[in-house]
Amino acid sequence: MTPGIVMEIGRQAIEVTLVLAAPMLIAALVVGLVISIFQAATQINEATLQFVPKLVAAFVVLIFFGPWMLDYFVDYIQRLFTNIPQLIG
Length: 89
Fold this sequence. Notes:
By secondary structure, the protein is mainly alpha-helical. Helix content is 87%, strand content 0%. It has one domain. The chain contains three helices and no strands. The longest helix has 40 residues, at 3-42. The model has no long low-confidence stretch (mean pLDDT 92).
C-alpha cells in the first residue's frame, strides 16, 4: 500500500466524518445563535438556557437525517471493504 493510497483513505474518512456531522452541527449552531440573540435582547444571562434547545434540535435533525446518514456511512464502509483486496495486493 503506497502512501498516496493511505492519504486518500484518510481524506475520504475525514470527508465522511464532516458530511455526517454537518447537519447536527449546523442545527446546533443555528439554534444557539437564535437563543443568543434572544438572550441578548432580553438580557437573560443563563448559560443552561441554550443546552436543552440545542439538544432537542440535534435529536430532531438525527430523526430526519438519520436514515440518510446511515446509508451514506454504510455505502462508505462497503466501498472500503470491497477495495481491501486491491489495497493490500
